[in-house]
Amino acid sequence: MNAEVIVPVTVFATIFGIVYIVLRHKERLSLIKNGGNASNLETKGNILGSLKWGMIFIGIGLGIIAGKIIASSTTMEEEAAFFSMICLLGGVALMIYYIMANRFKGTDKTENNQ
Could you give phi then psi for residue 17, rounded to 5 degrees? Predict the structure, then answer.
């Protein structure tokens, strides 16, 4: 990409981020001054979301490695090998995530019932 595109996008994103943080801070302060409870504004970390992104990036990394191995050991074109392995192993990572997320949600339900 050209610097002519990257620089304006970066400047715009930075200004947007600063304005968002300032407005969010002012909103929280005014809520507290008026006697409101700011606990409902807190963002809670999503462990399963982190697991999903970690697994997808591991799948993509393994896909790149597998694509390189397939491209060097067979007559398959390099682009096709990379693309197919990235999609295949990324999909496998998401399926494993789905199974793990259901198990985690199942244990949360049993803990709340006890």
Answer: -60, -45
Percentage, residues of the chain above pLDDT 70: 82
> Which residue is it, tokens 């407005």?
23
pLDDT (tens digit per residue) in 7-17: 888 889 999 98
Residue 89 burial (C-beta neighbours within 10 Å; 0-12, 13-18, 19+) = buried
What would the two tokens of residue 31 be?
């809520």
Express each pLDDT in 71-94 by its tens digit.
899 888 888 888 899 899 989 999
Q: Which sequence spans correspond to the domains of the chain?
A: 1-43, 45-107
How many helices (H) does the chain have, and how many strands (E)?
3, 0
Q: Quick one: which H or E segment has residue 109?
A: helix 78-113
